[in-house]
Amino acid sequence: MFEPKKLDNGLPPSRDAQEHDSEASERLLATLLNNELVCGNRDIAKRILQKAKPVSFAKGERIIEQGGTDDCVYFMVSGSVDVRINGRHIDYRNAPYSVGEMAAKRAGQARTADVVVVSQSLSALAISGGDFRMLMSDFESFNANLNNAIDDLSRKKISQLGEKTENKGWSWSAISGVVGVACAIAAGIFAWLAGSALLYGVICSTSAGIVGFVIIMLGNPQYLYRKVSIAAGMALIAYVGLGALNYNLTISGFDPSLPFLDIEAQGEQRIEVFWLSVIALAAVSGIFGYLDYRVNHARVGNSR
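^ thats the sequence. predicted structure below, dont judge the formating
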């Protein structure tokens, strides 16, 4: 017959102590049920409780070291950790998530990341790699959830490490700026050699710089649709503004003689041509904006 556990003084634990242990076990069970690998499966959660050992760590402690050969998995009960590869932040994880699954999935694999406690303390349930692999073998859903979690973490690693590689080179905006400045200088020199007036030279230089910058920006393959949409939108705004100015000056019968803007008292621009141009620019801006949304929406969906 079952005998109650006795304390060092030979007496069985009090009812309060038994109730406290029961409440603690229920809280641990509830936490495990919310873990992404357990996903509410009580049989899996109870197996982990049977096999795991409670552990605790202080802030700044490294519970997993990159390159290490241990294969324990830590199911976090409270607290949070920072996952780092070669000292670079990859992910934050907190309870009820777990860490250490990648090395435990296959025996003999080295740790791929450092895991450092960033909360004031961390409480977790540590389970050996062998017991973890038994869970994979005995519960098909656990294995499937593990594969999904590892896949998500791998994508985060690729994204973070890819950002570091991309940041080594010049950004597309910087390249466009350099080209724009070069175009402005070249146009200014050409206007000076041609003996043009100062105002004309400044306008030509500025215009050439802007055109060069915009053309190179539009060549960015990652945001081509977005740049075309923005360029068409800006052209639309400028064209509508010019049309409104032309219309107002025509009505008032005043010719301001603005440089590079020939507006006569009775302008020859037909209203039909104006509206067709506005509709065309709006359509180009809208279509390419939609294409940009589709491309980037698909990219975000694939990164999840």
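The CA atoms of residues 226 and 293 lie 8 Å apart.
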